[in-house]
Write a structure and sequence with these properties.
Structural class: alpha/beta
Helix content: 40-55%
Number of strands: 9
Radius of gyration: 21 Å
CATH topology of the largest domain: Rossmann fold
Number of domains: 2
CATH superfamily of the largest domain: NAD(P)-binding Rossmann-like Domain
Largest sheet: 4 strands, mixed
CATH class of the largest domain: Alpha Beta
Shape: globular
Order of helices and strands: HEHEEHEEHEEHEHHHEHHH
CATH architecture of the largest domain: 3-Layer(aba) Sandwich
Strand content: 5-15%
Number of helices: 11
């Protein structure tokens, strides 16, 4: 409705923020703006963003609406509260228990650079065009190694592969109704294990003149911000770790009791 109203009011250039996730799992292919999704969507977020992009924005463009579409990948930076930010904080404060789905790959762009892309799109974007706004494609396993290099902190010793995490998605979805789990333990996050959400920003760089800082500079700035917020951010993570550990012990005890009772009943 907002896009339709903007068109009806004669707004000369409408900037719509979509997402690279409208393509879903690109299965290792570095997508461009003309990429056609080939696999089922892994999350409700991907599906609903696809609907907004392909069944709202594009039909309005076909009717003459001067919409410029931006498609960011993973956005990070100081103050972020996304799944990636939660993972970065847990890594930095030594509370990340394992490396999840090391083959999952994403493209990362600093929030200030994504803002700059929007400003450039408002100035230079061609109505009817889409622009992927994404940084380098990096697998999670490589990213954790990069974080270790930047901070001097050890990466978690345990790695959980995609084939182990993805089947656990339905169970964690059910469990999250009863337990307040971190987002990257929940069903939708686990369903993405092993997937690649990667794309090329060559078009934005060429047509908009978009430039981005290096991943090293952006991530280092984000870790510096985390250090400045240690007093506020670290205590809740310690409490969370203790709560999850207690819940795990209680769950293990309950399973053990059920096994004992079933075994005793058979006797």
């Amino acid at each position: 409705k907002v896009l339709s109203l903007a068109h009806e009011l004669g707004v000369p250039r409408i900037i719509y923020t979509s997402t690279l996730a409208v393509f879903g799992d690109t299965q290792g292919e570095l997508a461009t703006e003309s990429y056609s999704p080939a696999s089922p969507f892994l999350t409700e977020y991907d599906r609903t963003k696809w609907l907004a992009h392909f069944q709202v924005a594009l039909p309005l463009i076909a009717k003459g609406a001067p919409i410029v579409i931006l498609m960011p990948g993973v956005v990070y930076g100081p103050g972020d509260e996304s799944i990636l930010a939660q993972m970065m904080a847990r890594f930095y404060f030594g509370k990340l228990p394992f490396v999840p789905a090391p083959n999952s790959a994403y493209t990362y762009a600093h929030v200030d650079d994504v803002v700059e892309a929007h400003m450039l799109a408002a100035e230079k974007g061609r109505p009817g065009e889409s622009y992927i706004v994404a940084g380098p494609a990096v697998a999670l396993g490589e990213l954790l190694g990069f974080w270790s290099y930047l901070t001097g902190k050890s990466r978690p010793p345990l790695t959980l592969p995609d084939w182990l995490l993805r089947p656990a998605a339905p169970l964690m979805t059910a469990l999250s109704r009863w337990v307040n789990l971190p987002e990257f333990y929940r069903g939708e996050a686990l369903a993405m294990s092993g997937a690649t959400y990667i794309g090329s920003s060559a078009k934005a760089e060429e047509q908009l003149g978009w430039k981005q800082r290096s991943l090293q500079a952006g991530m280092r700035e984000t870790f510096d911000w985390l250090e400045s917020q240690r007093a506020e951010l670290e205590p809740p993570l310690i409490e969370e770790q203790q709560r999850l550990l207690a819940g795990g012990v209680a769950g293990l005890a309950l399973v053990s009791l059920l096994i004992y009772l079933l075994t005793r009943k058979r006797r």
